[in-house]
Amino acid sequence: MNEQVTPVPLMELTSGVYAFKALALATDLELFTDLADGRTVTAAGFAEKHGLQLRPAELLLTACTALGLLRLEAGGMYRNTPMSEEFLVKGKAYYFGGWITVVDRHEYPAYLKLADSLRGNHPTTWDPKRQESLFAPDDPVMTEHFWEGMHALSAYTARLLAGALDFSKIGRLLDVGGGGAAFDIELCRRWPHLKATVFDLSFVCDLTRPRVAAAALEERIAFAVGDFFTDPLPAGHDAVLLSNILHDWGEDDVQKIIVACADALPTGGLVLICESFVADDKQGPPLAALMSLNMLVETWGKNYTAAEYSGWLRAAGLEPEGVTPFDGLGANGVLVARKH
Ligand SMILES: C[S@@+](CC[C@H](N)C(=O)[O-])C[C@H]1O[C@@H](n2cnc3c(N)ncnc32)[C@H](O)[C@@H]1O
Q1: Model pLDDT for residues 169-200, shown as the tens digit of each residue
Q2: Which ligand 1 atom sits closest to the C-alpha of 274?
Q3: How far, in Å, is the centroid of ligand 1 from the Cα of 198?
Q4: Nearest CA to ligand 1 atom 27
Q5: Distance CA 169, CA 155 (A)
Q6: Comparing C-alpha atoms, which of 210, 21, 161, 12 is closest to residue 103?
Q7: Lesser CB count within 10 Å: N end or C end of the chain?
Q8: If DSSP codes are grouped into helix, strand and coil, which group holds residue 142?
């Protein structure tokens, strides 16, 4: 046996499923929401509230504590950690639970069929024979989960983008596939001069309008209904944002979307590609690589490298200006390219 290596990392990898299911169940039971604002609970209190026996109740609380989701204090009192308080309490601006629900209800069952995706090179979270695309509103429950999940990933990521890039010279932004408007809302809040247009499918614009109204940004965020494969993109913008769009599609479609964006921009206009970029050497980072595998079960796309995007941008008459990295959820950076 090679004494230089141990199988412990493999044990840690396999326990990922236990960790995720503990997080998902605790979130589903609204444990962290119940503990908001400094409230505490004992294992007996948690068991009583949910009609559980003490043993399973304590096991779940211990797992959550070991995972950094709860803190156990004197007297057997459990309370939220700062991370749980900020991101796992329902109603908070950057509540992450929406994404946990998507993974638990929608993706987790699909991973039982990962080998089918691998062998057949097709998604398994939805049936391409029966549904036109991942985004078709065929299942209202799934549609609601999807948009809550998307918001959970995008609102926090958009906050980082708003701080990472200088938008002072961008007056009008076209958010292509901007459904949910999470990016437009965050960017408009951070940059008061900015106006944005969400371009998306009709039903997606309809479900996004109330979010913009709730943010009181109807004056600054407009909507343009269309299909980016068949309709021209609206002109009159200084920059186009593509956030978590291109990873949904195969290479031919990605190039079509980039060309459509270039066509809609004036000379000097910018394309902002906000994605989880896989490193050019394709050796990581793990989150981007795993999200890329996730694109196999969800879509026809993958997480491309900045080098791949740069080639397609140049072919469309745009000069890449580099990636600004950040530690986001749905994206790990933004690639900026300028039309010449
Ligand atoms: C993964 S979501 C990203 C949403 C948003 N950009 C974000 O980052 O939060 C993909 C978006 O592309 C939109 N979309 C998909 N196909 C489209 C098409 N053919 N034309 C316009 N929008 C489309 C979907 O409706 C959805 O809003």
Answers
A1: 999 999 999 999 999 999 999 999 999 999 99
A2: 8
A3: 10
A4: 179
A5: 22
A6: 21
A7: N
A8: helix
Tens digit of each residue's pLDDT (9 = 90 or more) over 102-132:
999 999 999 999 999 999 999 998 888 888 8
Q: 325 forms bridges with which residues in the sheet? A: 333
Closest among 153, 145, 123 to 274, alpha carbons compared: 153
- CA 224 – ligand 1 centroid, Å: 13
Q: How far apart are CA 326 and CA 50, in angstroms?
A: 40
- The position carrying tokens 């003490």 is 54
Residues with CB under 6 A from ligand 1: 135, 150, 154, 177-180, 182-183, 200-201, 204, 227-229, 243-245, 248, 330
pTM given for the model: 0.96
- Extents of the domains making up the chain: 8-87, 99-339
Fold of 99-339: Rossmann fold (3.40.50)
20: how many CB neighbours lie within 10 A of its CB? 15
Closest ligand 1 atom number to CA of residue 154: 9
CA of 9 to the centre of ligand 1 (A): 37
Could you say which DSSP state residue 324 is in?
E
Is residue 247 annotated as a catalytic residue, yes or no? yes
Catalytic residue among 145, 151, 237, 247: 247
Which residues in the chain land under pLDDT 50? none
By most ligand atoms within 8 Å of CB, the mutation choice from 147, 161, 212, 244 for ligand 1 is 244
Smallest Cα–Cα separation from 261: which of 321, 195, 313, 324? 313
Closest-CA residue to 255 (of 276, 228, 227, 288):
228
Ligand 1 atom closest to Cα of 151?
9
CATH topology of domain 8-87: Arc Repressor Mutant, subunit A (1.10.10)
